[in-house]
Design goal:
This protein is α/β, with parallel strands linked by helices and 268 residues long. The chain has one domain: Carbamate kinase, CATH 3.40.1160. It contains 9 helices and 14 strands. The strands form 3 sheets. It has an 8-stranded mixed β-sheet with strand order 3-6-2-1-9-13-14-12, sandwiched between helices. A hairpin with an 8-residue loop joins strand 10 and strand 11. Helix 7 runs antiparallel to helix 8. The radius of gyration is 17 Å and the shape is globular.
């Protein structure tokens, strides 16, 4: 496969696929619908190359907050927490992958915990050759927010956005698509009355306070952090388009995979 040839990254946000106010509570009907939409998009466009990621929602974020895993792992209690975050994140991943297979999508998981290492939260090593091989053979690689071993902090967490940011610089996708429960990025969170149709790097300092963060437990930063990471990414990957949109409305994921950009577009 030629890099950047009809390649898209799609994230299914933790707030979309779980009830973030109840620990370990998947939204199974939503996950099944989203899997069907991914299957339909692949069927409609056989040339579509897709890497799918998902958040951890009420699975990984709850123990991650309890043990402070994102900030580093050093004590025996923190290492037990590290393993607990891994268990919960991988449990949700299994639910997502099973739904994809039920929809006829040949999904295969590439967990960061088994492939990547970091230094102070930044990826230093990641063998992406198996993931590329899966893409070349028409399979759907699945990644997710996960624990990783860190050279200075012992361990930490890579969010799905962190994972996408690294992989995007390696694989050069045309688009990164972030599906959550909100219609896009609100200029006035939590009132949510003014949707931002586009955000450019020059805009961010003026709108950051209005964007705010997350209404539920999210150890990886919430919406403001996501927007900041995506703005940095469009600066690093020429021609990249990022869309932040609602996956809660049926058919939105299929439409966006088909080329539309709903919600908020982030770009230069």
């Amino acid at each position: 496969m030629t890099k950047n040839e009809n390649l898209q990254f799609l994230k299914l946000g933790g707030s979309l696929i779980t009830d973030k106010h109840q620990p370990r509570m998947p939204r199974r009907e939503v996950i099944a619908r989203l899997a069907e939409e991914v299957a339909a998009a692949r069927e409609n466009d056989p040339g579509l190359r897709l890497v799918l990621g998902h958040g951890s929602g009420s699975f990984g974020h709850v123990p991650a907050e309890r043990y402070g895993t994102r900030a580093g792992v050093r004590t025996s209690r923190q290492w037990r927490g590290f393993a607990e975050v891994w268990r919960d994140a991988s449990a949700l991943n299994r639910i997502v992958v099973e739904a994809l297979h039920a929809a006829g999508v040949p999904a295969l998981t590439f967990p960061p915990s088994g492939a990547a290492t970091t230094r102070r939260g930044k990826v230093t090593t990641w063998n992406t050759l198996p993931l590329l091989a899966a893409l070349e053979r028409g399979l759907l690689p699945v990644v997710y927010g996960d624990v990783v071993f860190d050279e200075e902090w012992g361990g930490t967490i890579l969010s799905t956005e962190n994972v996408f940011a690294y992989l995007a610089q390696e694989l050069h996708p045309q688009r990164v698509l972030l599906a959550g429960i909100d219609e896009g990025v609100w200029a006035d969170y939590p009132a949510c009355e003014r949707l931002l149709p586009k955000i450019a790097p020059a805009d961010f300092s003026q709108i950051r306070r209005g964007i705010e963060g997350s209404a539920a437990t999210d150890v990886t930063g919430g919406m403001a952090s996501k927007v900041e990471e995506m703005l940095a990414l469009v600066g690093d990957v020429p021609g990249l388009e990022v869309c932040i949109f609602s996956g809660g409305k049926p058919a939105n994921v299929q439409r966006v995979l088909g080329g539309e950009c709903l919600g908020t577009r982030i770009g230069l």
